Structures are given as structure tokens and as C-alpha cells.
UniProtKB/TrEMBL annotation:
One GO MF term: 3-deoxy-8-phosphooctulonate synthase activity
Enzyme class: transferase
Protein name in UniProt: 2-dehydro-3-deoxyphosphooctonate aldolase
Pathway: Carbohydrate biosynthesis; 3-deoxy-D-manno-octulosonate biosynthesis; 3-deoxy-D-manno-octulosonate from D-ribulose 5-phosphate: step 2/3; Bacterial outer membrane biogenesis; lipopolysaccharide biosynthesis
Homology family: Belongs to the KdsA family.
Location (main, coarse): cytoplasm
GO biological processes: keto-3-deoxy-D-manno-octulosonic acid biosynthetic process
Pfam families recorded: DAHP_synth_1 (PF00793)
InterPro entries: Aldolase_TIM, DAHP1/KDSA, KDO8P_synthase
Keywords linked to the UniProt accession: Cytoplasm, Lipopolysaccharide biosynthesis, Transferase
Length: 275
């Protein structure tokens, strides 16, 4: 199950952090956050992968900011890799994007709403890059076994599954902690996307709301349940972020949270060997 992406290890009893702003806003802002997040993750003793999207194709409103586009976005992500040395990940939404994105991104991310798109999973798997598939809000964790089978059949040797909450009535998500051991039983490392799990989809009418005040307790619970990585959208000014501001973690809360998560992870490893 364990595998490496550059110097970053997923599985093997390690805890890895994937973090970054929801969407690429500018070169300067993205590089600033990449350096800050990497520095703070290193101080907390955790492996780090930078994540940001060049395009947010799934928006509540056509008026919402989607990003800077693929060409500019990939140029910025390439600069993050070159300046920080950290692996980067970003979303792919269509099969036509996969080859070009794979030239830059170390991990190709399949968004939750596209997790059943066979052609997209197969195209990503065939690049030889690591692939992270987010379990859809409409799937049970048991259904994620089919995602693993599709990716493996296409030759994917480095696969992650991500939990990002399940639809719970209108404008709400809930995380079933049973999903972590269930999906790990499929032989792949499991990521907990904490901040997206705290979205209130369409909760603002014209945009998605969120409950960032619950990031820390939910993250602590997920790490105690034995996840291999945590995914956190982080911003230096969430109130003015153009996308996902209500559920993003403020930058000043990032390092204290990582220190707590590392301590919980180490406690679980000592007392539950083999999880």
C-alpha cells in the first residue's frame, strides 16, 4: 500500500499533509502560500504536498471566480515545484486536460463529482502519475472499491482515495468515520479532506457556505481514526478569498493544528500497531 511521490511518503505509518488555497489567485499569492505552508509543515515534522486548482469547474454560480485557466495555472504550479521542491497536485476535469497537467502535477486529482467517470480515471491512471480520487458525496465507502478496480486495471500503481463528506439532507455534509478503515481495506492510503467536508453546498444561495470553526475537531477525529493524510485548504485571508473562503483554514491556525495532529498520530501508532 505505501508509496512515494518524490520525497513524500503516503502510508507506511506516516502522516502527510496536502494543503494550499482553493484556487490559484495569482503567481505571487500562490508562491507566498506555498513557501509558508511548506515551512510550517516542516516545522511540524510532516511531509507536505501543495494543492491548488487552476480551474474550479464546479461552481454554484456562473458569476463565481473559477481561476486563471490551465495554461497560466500550470505555469504557476511549475514555479511552485521549482522554488519549493514540494510535489504539487491539482484537479483534472476532462480527459483532454490529463496529458498536459501530468507534465506538471505530481498527483492528478479527480474531483468528487467526477469519481465515476471511467474515461477520466483511466486516462489519469495511464499517465504513470500518482492519482487521488475523491469519493463522491453520493457514494458509500464500499462503492469506492470500484474506483480502485478501475484505476488498477488501467495500470495505476500509486492511488489515493479521499473522503470529503457525504450529502446529509440539503446544504450539509457529514463524515462517517467508518469510511476510513473501510477504504484502507482496499489496499490504498486514505486522505481526509477536512475542509471540503465542512462545506455547506449552495448554503449561501449564490455560493457554497462553510463551517471553518469545526476544522480542528474534525481533523483530530480523522487522524485518530487512522487516516494516512489530511487535506486542508488554507488561506491567509479567507474572508476575502474568491473561492471556498467560509470553509478554509486561516494560515495562522495551520501550524498549531499540524502539531496537534502529529501528536495524535504518534499516539495512535504506539497504541494501535498495524492500523
Amino acid at each position: 500500500m505505501p508509496f512515494s511521490v518524490g520525497d513524500v511518503v503516503f502510508g507506511d505509518g506516516r502522516l502527510t499533509v496536502i494543503a494550499g488555497p482553493c484556487v490559484i489567485e495569482s503567481r505571487e499569492h500562490t508562491l507566498m502560500l506555498a513557501h509558508e505552508l511548506q515551512r510550517r509543515a516542516q516545522r511540524a515534522g510532516l511531509d507536505f504536498v501543495f494543492k491548488s486548482s487552476f480551474d474550479k469547474a464546479n461552481r454554484s454560480s456562473h458569476e463565481s471566480f473559477r481561476g486563471l485557466g490551465m495554461r497560466v495555472g500550470l505555469e504557476i504550479l511549475r514555479a511552485v515545484r521549482e522554488e519549493t521542491g514540494a510535489p504539487v497536485t491539482t484537479d483534472v476535469h476532462e480527459t483532454t486536460q490529463v496529458e498536459e497537467v501530468a507534465e506538471v502535477a505530481d498527483i492528478l486529482q479527480i474531483p468528487a463529482f467526477l469519481c465515476r467517470q471511467t474515461d477520466l480515471i483511466v486516462a489519469a491512471a495511464r499517465t504513470g502519475r500518482a492519482v487521488n480520487v475523491k469519493k463522491g458525496q453520493f457514494l458509500s465507502p464500499y462503492d469506492a472499491r470500484n474506483i480502485v478496480r478501475k484505476a488498477r486495471a488501467a495500470g495505476c500503481e500509486r492511488l489515493l482515495l479521499t473522503e470529503r463528506g457525504t450529502t446529509f439532507g440539503y446544504h450539509n455534509l457529514v463524515v462517517d468515520m467508518r469510511s476510513f478503515p473501510i477504504m484502507r481495506s482496499f489496499g490504498v492510503p486514505v486522505v481526509f479532506d477536512v475542509t471540503h467536508s465542512l462545506q455547506l453546498p449552495g448554503g449561501l444561495g449564490h455560493a457554497t457556505g462553510g463551517q471553518a470553526e469545526f476544522i480542528e475537531p474534525l481533523a483530530r477525529a480523522g487522524v485518530a481514526a487512522g487516516v494516512d493524510a489530511v487535506f486542508l485548504e488554507v488561506h491567509d485571508d479567507p474572508a476575502h478569498a474568491p473561492s471556498d473562503g467560509p470553509n478554509m483554514l486561516p494560515l495562522e491556525r495551520f501550524e498549531p493544528l499540524l502539531e496537534m495532529l502529529r501528536a495524535i498520530h504518534e499516539l495512535v501508532r504506539r497504541n494501535a500497531p498495524g492500523w
